[in-house]
Amino acid sequence: MTSTCCSCFQGLTGNKKTEFHRRRSGSWQPNASLIPDQMTNAWASPVPRTQPGNSPQSPGDLDLVLSGMDTDAQLAPIKMKSINNRRSKFEVEQLTMSPGSLPKPLTAHEREQAIRRLEPTATFEMLNEVPDEVLEEASPQAQELRRKLTKGATVVFVSAGYPGKRFIYERAAALGVKSVILDHPDSWSKGLVEEGIIAKFLPVDMSQSSDEVFKEAVRAISELGKDGITGKADGVVTFVELSVPLTSRLAEVLGLPGMSPAAVDAARDKHRTRAALKKAGLPTPANFLIKQCSDLKAAAEAVGFPAVLKPVSGAASLGVKKVLSFEELESSYREVAEELGGLVVSSGALTKATNGIKGVNASSVVDLTVLLEQYLDGPEVDVDIVMSDGEWRYAAVSDNGPTSEPYFQEFWGLCPSLLSKQQQTELKELAINSVKVLGFATGVFHVELKYTSTTGPQLIEVNARLGGGPVRECNRLVWGVDLVEEAIFCALGIPARPYSPPTPNTCIGYTFVNAQKSGKLTSEATAKFEAWRKLPNVLSSVPLAKTGDTVVGVKDGLSTWLCELVVTGKTSEEALKYFLKLENDAAADIE
Questions:
Q1: Which residue has the higher pLDDT, 112 or 153?
Q2: Could you tell me which residues are beta bridge partners of residue 415?
Q3: Is 20 helix (H, G, I), strand (E, B) or coil?
Q4: Residue 256 and residue 390: Cα distance in Å, rounded?
Q5: How does strand 412-415 pair with strand 370-374?
Q6: DSSP at 78
Q7: What is the pTM of this model?
Q8: Are 467 and 495 in contact, with CB atoms under 8 Å apart?
């Protein structure tokens, strides 16, 4: 088969009309009847302001579906099923000693040699037919052209994540992508083949070590295109944190567009991240690497108090704790070591062991290296960034509500931010510069920062992936930018130039309703969670706990998330007041 996709563009370059064809893309087509159409029509601009025109999207179409979304945090744990009930060596390595046994990044010469040996992808050949000035344009018309260039491409998604990430594969299918998911044989996602959402499922034994998973993945991806269902791989991408190092190396060895493995490794190591920022002259808090108990005194002298103890490589807020004195440092170090020794790994996410589920004994796998870092006060924010061709193309600032100390558990978020335009601009600049300093040139990033009272913006961490929870929907509904779509463009080597209106389409607020006290959740509470769905301006209400569940209150440790609530408002202030009122109404429903 020589072509299954033929598109043209006209009006972007005068009267010139050019057609392009995708060769040998395979026969599979998505089941269009199952694909929902999810595109909807005093802040810092989220895009470089050189874009013409007005927003083509309607702010009234807010068809949000969040049921079962992965929040990348401590939801109810799901025990991973491994072949012969073996613990996943791959996930343990990526949690506690990333990049583990994965191969070292190629040198520039080795990568060049790998690319020269490989045939150009069909997407690359099509891009060569499009004038550069068209690909550089950020407009609704150019965005539609990028979608047409994506149609028919074979994209490998490494690890499916939770079932709540289904929206990713639905969006890919809506774009006409021939999606291939590579995951453990018992992954929920293999059922998407029968539904017509994805073209193929590649089973890989994820209970193996990282190097074995890598080799098996390379073999499986290299076979694509031979059966006529899909074409050869045009790109590889992941939306799962633990699979980012693996994906970057797969792209490298296969000669496909992707993130630098060296940059990925640096971003996942908090100590290396701090060192890179310091070397570049960017603001960074005082910090000290603790490898054993004997390092505690030197760490205390170097950093001082208050300080924050955190794993060098971690997820969500697990293992992170504020300490006020040397005595607290000693006791918290032991506590963190115990906490990291009792983890549950599930679909690429990390959670504490509960309800009799045994966790990973991390102390038997690797050194429990942690970082002592200067405490940062002030409001926490997220900056969602799209990088392409070495420059930022989109960067939107969202607020995180005050975290619950000493464990820094997140409660709520707002988009767009309530901070001043000047503060947002400073935060954006640090986030973008941090991504660049680490060595990234292309991709979608979720960057966490704080705006401190003494030193201004400070980086918390760079995540080389789309953020979890409602992050995708907040950016899509508020600014009209679909980060799933942009990540797919980046994986294919299509220049990402998202179009965004000069003012927000709407304002979004969300909260993970926390148990205010310990006890059992009542039926009154769960009834309210269900009733919220019918209220005006409530986009989603997803219960995370059931009637009768034993829950932990905010004063007794890491509190239990009861419900994920998302609302809209004319302003961010209005959205904030609305969800706080609803949350307060349910505060007493624990006995």
A1: 153
A2: 508
A3: strand
A4: 17
A5: unpaired
A6: -
A7: 0.84
A8: no
Per the structure block, which two tokens stand in for 437?
């300093």
The answer to whether the CB of 162 falls within 8 A of the CB of 476 is no
Q: Taking phi first (over 0 means left), then psi (-120 to 50 degrees means alpha), and beta for anything else, what does residue 248 get? A: alpha
Higher pLDDT, 337 or 216: 216
Secondary structure of 359-386 in the HEC alphabet?
CECHHHCCCCCEEEEECCCCCEEEEEEE
Write out the E strands in 123-177.
154-158
Q: Pick 42 or 287 by higher pLDDT.
A: 287
Strand ranges in 161-296 using DSSP code E only, listed in sequence order: 178-183, 200-203, 235-237, 287-290
pLDDT > 70 in the chain, percent: 80
Give yes or no for a contact between 552 and 558, defined as CB atoms under 8 angstroms apart.
yes
Nearest to residue 415, comparing CAs of 460, 471, 375?
A: 471
Taking each helix axis from N to C end, the angle separating 483-492 and 471-479, rounded to the nearest 10 degrees, works out to 100
For 219-253, letters b (16+ CB in 10 Å) and e give: ebbeebbeeebbbbbbbbbbbbbbbbbbbbbbbbb
Q: Which residue in this structure is represented by tokens 């100590």?
A: 271
Q: With contact defined as beta carbons under 8 Å apart, do 513 and 574 qualify?
A: no
Q: Are 138 and 219 in contact (CB under 8 A)?
A: no
Q: Is 457 helix (H, G, I), strand (E, B) or coil?
A: strand
How would DSSP label each residue in 297-336? HHHHHHH-SSEEEEESS--TTTT-EEE-SHHHHHHHHHHH
Q: Select from 504, 484, 510, 526 the least CA-distant residue to 579.
A: 510
- Tell me which H or E stretch contains 414: strand 412-415
**DSSP of 167-204:** HHHHHHHHTT-EEEEEE-TT-GGGHHHHHTS-SEEEE-
Tokens of 296: 């505690």
